[in-house]
Design a protein that fits this description.
The complex is a heterotrimer. Chain A is α+β, with helices and mostly antiparallel strands. Chain A has helices at about 1-35, 40-45, 80-90; strands spanning about 50-55, 60-65, 70-75, 120-125, 135-140, 155, 165, 185-190, 195, 200, 200-204. In chain A, about 25% of the residues lie in helices and about 20% in strands. Chain B is mainly α. Chain B has 18 helices and 2 strands. Chain B is about 65% helix and about 0% strand. Chain B has helices at about 15-25, 30-35, 50-70, 80-90, 95-120, 130-150, 155-170, 175-185, 190-225, 250-275, 310-315, 320-340, 345-360, 370-380, 385-390, 400-425, 430-445, 450; strands at about 40, 245-250. By secondary structure, chain C is an alpha+beta fold. Chain C is extended. Classes of the chains: A alpha+beta, B mainly alpha, C alpha+beta. Chains in contact: A-B, A-C, B-C. At the B-C interface, helix 4, helix 5, helix 10 and helix 16 of B face helix 1, strand 1, helix 5 and helix 9 of C.
Chain lengths: ~200, ~475, ~250
């Protein structure tokens, strides 16, 4: 009787040990296979930071760069455009960007201009509407226009479902889009050269 | 019959209740018991009996690694080669998946050849297991096709030219040959069209057929029960409970036995994957690291090692060799008439086929290229005839005359010689050895009805040879 | 069974009797696969001498970090102009121009070290010998010929380092057909010395070949390191599985 118990406990010990050792093998193999889903080197290289030269960008002009497959707008705002931001402050849903879309507003960006203090007139924003992902069109001319209110001071209009954004990329109240446009991490390597997707803390 | 669900006591564990629910609607426990849990297998299985389980394991490895490879592989003539290097370098752990798949392919064939060797030694193909053997033979054919189609996918020089040569073999068939080759390729030479359809065959068509055949193979086996090294039918000796006295339930005995076998296999497999994935150019050929070039044929085109035994026979069939073959066929027909007890109609049919072949091999008939293909195909197909070629009164080599062992060993050496010659470039000496080996190879099978019944057989014991351990 | 095992053992050894590879004998490439300095030097030689005509389109510059280089070092020393660190090592030479200039498009070198393996030696052995076997031959369009790759379309790119050498041949009887004569290679001769001594040149070529070998499979060293642990763990597992199996089978009479 005691012999059986010995056999049993010996066998159970071996069973547990074998299962544990085998489990390690299984988990390691599974881990390797599942990891193959992670972004490849090609995808990561494609997602690397992008340098943009804005030396030829005149006030009121906007250029688009591509970063991680998305359009990134760089808009050199005129003094009138900057002034409009005070007016829209009370008309936008989230003036301080407290509830971001996919990226929190970088700490070095001011709340109203959503840009770095040293270059407050330059807006850098991802041109993807926070509703369902269409790319809004620029509507910089002030005044009444179709789909825009009479006191329109300039900004962006999304053609898909009519969401509007001010000249800092902040969404107006009561629009389909719930959040402001994303502002990616960025830094200035000179007054006219911006790197998108990288800042002092490293790569995004 | 009305639906009946067994009622378990209210305090029964949840897992038991769940199993009960399923069992009332799906024969889960019954399947488990019939196919494994209570499947009584002979207790005297030796080392040679691990290869069936290993084959199943490698099939799973190939399918799983294959699924992950297809996520990044591009079946396009312009992108395929680079996509494989992409997997090797840029997909996290891609190199491991690729090496597992390439090593698995060669491992599969080593295992299958050893699995078949077991059958040869112990007479596992004999009645009532002929169907197990035939399903297995069909699996072997599918496996060769699967490997052939898969090898084109990396789109290296060997991939391309190997495919070109083999598809051109079909061109040797009289009348329909060239059109057949064109139809298989989908183009005048192996090209993107060929690559795409081979991709489809390799990834889904043949795997589905393979899975079906493996299920059939196992069902057929479980229906009649496994053979064993002594060749004794264990079902002929049952105990009071109706179980074979020489059997043990597969669970737990063969569950843990096979788990051990699997761990040993994994050591060998991992040693190759991590330390020698190219295996000296046999598992991953160096020429295949050169992208396919339709204008430049490599100096030595050889099929991958697992095809070489049969390929050797193809190459050995020169026009001179055809005279030997004709003589052999003639002698065989004479032997059939003088020394066999087949029905007269069958004898006449064999004589008729023999005559057609002899005439066809004449210089004015079909060329050696065609007959090479015929012999190549026959060397594979003849395996299917084993259950009927073997006329020994005894299943296992253990109770056959000792000289039968020599015959089997000579066959094994012949098979490996043919394989070795197949990876070497041809030379007059090697050709001669290949021809001698080809004759020996066919003689083993074709003369088996006679030699397998000759000699003094040993008495077959009633109980299996088993040492408790 | 023992009989069968002996036969199998003998057969496994038979391939060792395989005929030795024919052709120009290959030297053994020094193994510098674990020498970071050598690999970095090889990378530099590769980018400077090879990447103009050859591409290595499966190799990403950023992977050079595995050789102990920082992104800035790669950017400063190893990028061809216009390329970014995240780019693949492609080339600007078009296939059409290449064929026009060399007769054949210089092949991609991503896996060249794996492609050149044969019975005569490993891929690195071939490359190491090839790059040190050029000789001056005015009958060739490039003015160069090579003992390992006769009538090769590639010129001796490293000639300034090695110097210009000639090859001396002797007419001997053909060993297969005594009525014919063939040219047998006797030795190399120095025509003009190069910037490096013979030993320095050999060492640099060894570095370059080590780099090509690394580039052919950057994962090599990780694979082997991992393999040691995998085998140790699986051995442990197999011992456990063996004893576990034995614990059941001892009940079987």
């Amino acid at each position: 009787m005691s012999n059986e118990k010995q056999v049993d406990s010996g066998r159970r010990g071996l069973l547990v040990a074998t299962c544990a050792a085998g489990g390690v093998v299984g988990l390691s193999a599974t881990g390797a296979f599942v990891s193959t889903f992670q972004p490849s080197e090609r995808a990561k290289a494609g997602g690397a930071p992008v340098e943009v030269d804005i030396s030829t960008l005149k006030p009121g002009e906007m250029t688009t760069a591509e970063w991680r497959g998305k359009p990134v707008w760089i808009l050199k705002r005129t003094p009138e455009m900057m002034a409009s931001l005070k007016a829209t402050q009370s008309e936008v849903a989230d003036p301080d960007s407290a509830k971001p879309y996919t990226m929190p507003l970088p700490e070095y960006c001011e709340k109203q201009s959503r840009a770095r203090k040293e270059h407050e007139d330059v807006l850098i924003a991802v041109g993807i509407c926070s509703h369902l992902g269409c790319s809004p069109s620029k509507k910089f001319t002030p005044g009444a226009q179709p789909s825009l209110p009479d006191n329109w001071a300039g900004g962006f209009l999304c053609p898909c479902h009519g969401s509007t954004f001010d000249l800092s990329g902040r969404v107006f109240k009561n629009k389909p889009a719930p959040q402001n446009l994303d502002v990616p991490r960025h830094m200035y390597i000179s007054d006219t050269k911006i790197v998108i997707g990288k800042d002092e803390k490293g790569e995004a | 019959m009305a639906f009946v669900e067994k009622k378990l006591p209210a305090d029964a564990p949840v897992i038991d209740k769940a199993l009960n629910w399923v069992d009332s609607r799906f024969p889960l426990t019954k399947l488990w018991n019939d196919q494994w849990g209570q499947y009584y297998a002979p207790k005297n299985f030796n080392f040679w009996y691990i290869f069936g389980s290993l084959a199943m394991l490698v099939l799973v490895i190939q399918i799983v690694t294959g699924i992950f490879l297809v996520m990044n592989y591009k079946p396009d003539a312009g992108l395929a080669f680079t996509s494989v290097e992409f997997i090797m370098r840029e997909v996290p752990w891609g190199w491991l998946i690729r090496y597992m798949h390439s090593t698995g392919a060669s491992a599969f064939f080593i295992i299958i050849y050893l699995h078949m060797a077991r059958a040869l030694m112990y007479g596992s193909y004999r009645k009532p297991r002929e169907l197990v053997w035939l399903f297995g033979f069909a699996i072997f054919l599918c496996l060769m096709a699967e490997a052939f189609f898969g090898y084109l996918l990396p789109w290296g020089q060997m991939s391309y030219w190997g495919a070109q040569v083999i598809v051109n073999l079909f061109g040797a068939i009289p009348v329909i040959g060239p059109d057949l080759s064109l139809w298989i390729r989908g183009d005048y030479v192996v090209s993107d069209a060929t690559l795409n359809r081979f991709f489809s065959f390799h990834v889904i068509a043949i795997p589905l057929v393979l899975l079906g055949l493996v299920v059939a193979h196992l069902i057929a086996l479980h229906e009649v029960g496994s053979n064993n090294p002594d060749g004794i039918e264990i079902k002929e000796n049952l105990d009071a409970n109706g179980h074979p006295v020489d059997g043990v339930p597969s669970h737990p005995y063969y569950t843990f036995h096979d788990i051990f076998g699997v761990t040993v296999f994994l050591i060998l497999f991992s040693a190759v994957v991590f330390f020698a994935p190219e295996m000296g150019g046999y598992f991953l050929e160096s020429n295949n690291f050169i992208p396919a070039d339709s204008l430049k044929t490599p100096l030595h085109i050889a099929p991958t090692w697992y095809f070489t035994p049969f390929y050797s026979i193809l190459r050995a069939t020169t026009s001179d060799f055809l005279y030997i073959v004709q003589a052999g066929i003639a002698a065989y027909v004479v032997l059939i008439y003088l020394k066999s007890s087949l029905p007269a109609l069958i004898k006449a049919a064999i004589a008729g086929i023999g005559l057609v072949m002899i005439v066809g091999m004449m210089p004015f008939g079909l060329d050696a290229k065609f007959w090479g293909v015929v012999l190549f195909g026959s060397s594979v197909m003849i395996l299917a005839g084993m259950p009927w070629l073997d006329q020994s009164p005894v299943k296992s080599i253990r109770y056959r005359p000792d000289w039968h062992k020599i015959v089997l060993v000579v066959f094994g050496i012949t098979f490996m010689t043919l394989g070795y010659l197949g990876v070497q470039p041809p030379s007059p000496t090697r050709n001669l050895i290949a021809q001698v080996s080809a004759v020996l190879y066919f003689a083993f099978f074709l003369l088996m009805p006679w030699w397998s019944a000759m000699g003094t057989f040993k008495p077959v014991p009633k109980r299996v040879t088993f040492k408790p351990h | 069974m023992k009989f069968i095992k002996t036969i199998i053992a003998t057969l496994v050894l038979l391939p060792a009797l395989a005929l030795a590879g024919e052709g120009y004998p290959l030297d053994h490439a020094p193994d510098r696969s674990n020498n970071m300095a050598a690999l970095q030097n090889g990378a530099k030689l590769f980018v400077n001498y090879c990447l103009n005509c050859h591409a290595a389109a499966s190799m990403r510059y950023s992977r050079l970090a595995d050789l102990g280089l920082t992104e800035d070092q790669i950017r400063a020393n190893l990028l061809l102009s216009g390329d970014k660190v995240g780019d693949l090592m492609t080339r600007t030479l078009s296939v059409k121009d290449a064929k026009a200039w060399f007769g054949v498009s210089p092949p991609d070198l991503s896996v060249i070290a794996r492609a050149k393996a044969s019975e005569s030696g490993t891929g690195p052995d071939w490359l190491y010998t090839y790059l040190r076997s050029y000789y001056k031959d005015d009958t060739r369009p490039t003015g160069w010929n090579n003992m390992v790759f006769p009538n090769v379309g590639m010129p001796h790119v490293l000639w300034e380092l090695q110097g210009v050498r000639g090859a001396e041949f002797e007419e001997v009887e053909d060993e297969n057909d005594h009525s014919k004569k063939t040219l047998e290679f006797k030795k190399f001769t120095t025509i003009t010395p190069g910037k490096l001594t013979a030993a320095e040149y050999d060492s640099n070529v060894a570095d370059l070949v080590a780099y090509l070998n690394w580039m052919g499979e950057p994962e090599q060293s990780t694979r082997k390191r991992l393999g040691v642990w995998v085998l140790i763990w699986l051995s442990l597992l197999s011992v456990l599985a063996w004893r576990l199996n034995a614990s059941y089978w001892k009940e079987v009479k």
